Records
---
Amino acid sequence: MTLRIGMVINPTSGKNTGGRIGTEAATLLRARGHEIVDLSGMDADSAKGQAREALAQGRIDRLVVSGGDGMVHLGLNLCAQTDVPLGIIAAGTGNDIARELGLPVRNAIEAVERIERGTARRVDLARSVIGDGSTIWFGGVLAAGFDAVVNERANGWRWPKGQMRYNLAILRELPVFRAIPYVLTLDGERIETEAMLVAVGNGPAYGGGMKVVPGAKFDDGLLDVLVLSRISTPEFLRVFPKVFSGAHVDHPAVTTHRAHRVHLEATGIVGYADGERFAPLPLSCEVVPGALTVLT
């Protein structure tokens, strides 16, 4: 069967890996007789505009993104609550959503197999209506604590590039960071706390393998909420590396919750979801079961 495949490729993702592997996959798909509709555009906004138009006009059978979690974020916001499945060519730096879905990473041939013959799996998404009334979605983890503060700091710098900018932002923020007062409302239950870290997970991992909410599942109809309460900076440095294995949840300062609807309130915090700048707090999100079809 010949497919009409809309492709959005991030040429710079994963130190240009996204462009190389995405182009290789497009070449393989054309060689197999499929129609490739290039929707990449000059930037993310133009790509989103072109993809929305193609989806609205019914010109594509599936949408494929090539890059990291940011590209998956773009794709799921386009395909949410539509009949068009999302194909993922994982070629970024973190690739957390793809990896946790069991998809191949940085492998064009295996990615093409999923795009052509993969199982159409329904997964949940988290939906949020932000201040301007627009609806945005995330598929992985919403960061709203120290990790979000570091992201906001790093994004304000033009230099250096890549992971080093994030590492320097950690060094800049850590000595001055203090626990943040939060109000969390989980399915109507109000919780007031001071916390170092607050994360809301539709999926379990972010940041290139950090299993911050290890119990989160893409298809259980719930959001997992992790709260790391006030601890000293030395203790925070001791606990935080355990996030790569998920062992941090055993620390007495960590509590986890599950809810359908989550409302977060804090001053001066901008939430980051799927590694992308999402929205400032306060914000609300709710799980929408089966909101996305993804090719796995």
---
Amino acid sequence: MASFPNDITTDILSQLPVKSVARFRCVCKSWKSLLTGACFINAHFDRSSKYRTVSLLKYDDNNSSRIGVYRPHHRELSHLNPSSGHPSRYNVVDSCNGILCLSVYYKDKPGLPDIFLWNPSIHECMVVPQHHCRVSGLIAFGFNPLSGHLDDFKVVNINFNFGARTDCHSSRAQIYSLRSNSWKKIGNVFSSWLGRNLGHQVIFQNFICWGTHARVNGQIVASLVSFDMVEEVFREMALPDSMPSEEKFITLFEGCLSLIVQNPSSQCYEVWTMKEFGVTESWAKLYTTTVLMDGFLQCWPLGAASSGEVLFVKSFYCELRLSLTSYVVSYDTRRREFEEFKVGVEAYCSSRLVNYTESLVSVVTRD
């Protein structure tokens, strides 16, 4: 192997899983230099993004958080959990380039949560340094794809100040850059009503996106909110009038930014996708699920696990609207059928589905 050109060696080794590559770093100094270099890490990630992308299901069970590796149309989870020493309960903000952003909130210091960046493939984890401004419950995570660095990650912390009158409400955001290991402020960012109505985020190209739905001054207000990781600005985009005005659940479906929306007249969910990002007229309804709500039954979408599968949390309620039991179900978009597998969750609001690609990207060392 020592006589092979570097490009051939790189092509061969980039096809291996992360665990194997990590072991081969110990073969010799030249291999360690090759396998820890930016060129190889980029080549390996390009290959992994095509063949080694899975869905991670974060959920709470028995007063602790768990992360399960979900493979399409499989009825069992293999588990992937942070190493010992981390809190037993946490939230998953999102996953990007093999890195998971986790947030932990403590009852005794609600304004000072911990934010972790964790690569489970190479067992690396770092705590984002605390900022002098109050860290909020609304945290976003993404990276700048135009910088040329897979580790150009950014954590966005959004705070809202609610005054006595609506016109006194304001918002502000701070951005943490991993590469510079520093925070900066970007000021008043968008309408304060969004602070209580942004759901889970989705990373699409160089944007962090949310679907919003709220009643403001007696009227339903809905839009698509995005944060540009390159220009570091927030924008709101209108949604088509033909889309139901109910709550929006954002996801990626077949490579496109999509929204899962409940239709109150049919009690079904509709899946809408935006064929051209930023163009309102490009929204189109892909399909409608079978009936989900019936009496005390409620289903809440987690997102698309693959091109033909959407996961939901299914809950039953008693007369006091307290959840008796909740579990995950899979909806096959081709057969229009639901399938169940034995994963019980405490609640929909603490569950999260994200796409994950294993990588060698480090959150500790910088180039």
---
Amino acid sequence: MTLKQLEESTAYLKHKGFDAPELGIVLGTGLGKLVAEIENPIEAHYNHIPFFPLATVEFHTGKLIYGTLEGKKVVVMQGRFHMYEGYDLIDVTYPIRVMHQLGIKNLFISNAAGAVNLNFKKGDIMLIEDHINLQGGSPLAFKNVAEFGDRFVDMSEPYDLKMRKKVEAIAKRENISLQKGVYASVVGPQLETKAEYRMIKLIGADAVGMSTVPEVIAANHLRLPVMAVSVLTDECDPDNLKPVNIAEIIAIAGETEPKMIKLFKELIKEI
């Protein structure tokens, strides 16, 4: 990755009308309906944006959408990139750097995850307070990283405390049940074994998924405040583990999505 590549990607989007967005949003698996709320949308498919990776997951549509949401200019990633698709972590986080170049001041992230904390139930929303990186790498581990920011990035509070407090207040006001916890990110795409779920719980995670952590690390590198939520789509009880049903996971994400959209829209009004 070079600054020249980032500048070319950004120039293409500006030419299409992506004008000074205030907020970036990354939508997770089964969580794409927020885009229907965007006014005056402009779309840019990933395969048309210079140096962008291509989305390969069937339920990730693969485009950036720019427009207005709750009176603010936003750019939304409908479809994200994962290590399990064969990308490296620099590819996975490239869109975050492009959105930052466009001018975003805050970043929202959503994902679908499995509940390892058995007090949490499928259909719950979890506000991510901290994370554990189990992906075996870093999006900052490349030679010329110092051209883009500090090599050694502080991660004592990777998820913006002010936005987290606002989300908690909104959830209380809107009567949305909100869990809080630690998200563990694995490579995938295979789901976890019983022993792996036990390990993930033992090391302090409340939920597990295959995304989000690389984007959050990149955002912290850019000093970009970030807020992230997990929609919990299955309960990962190693003592009662049943074969995974991907269709059911997508369906539960879809059922919970309106509550997530409400949280996001109310937070957009307040930042």
---
Amino acid sequence: MSERPLALVVEDSPDQMALLRRYLDREGFDVLSAVDAESAISAFADISPLVAVIDLLLPGITGAECARLVRARFPECYLIVSSVLDEADYPDADAALPKPIVGADLRRLLAEVRR
């Protein structure tokens, strides 16, 4: 059993997923990755993420709906939404991570989680 905290990443772009996995691993997180909201939701019974990074533009269930479901199921989870959309269009979350994702921006947000 790992002592590292869990990060849930919901991202349909393989390149963005690989980037987020690498950044989060470096920051000391285990990562559960899902390519769509349905896959993430199906894992809810078995996980307890400290942080979630959710792309807003997902196939099927939207990222905004996925973020709402994460918030409802894991109220203590630090919720980060990520997108190419204008930040004014982001749903309510703890933080925004506009694309293209920059490692320093994610590190800064994760420092908030650790406080």
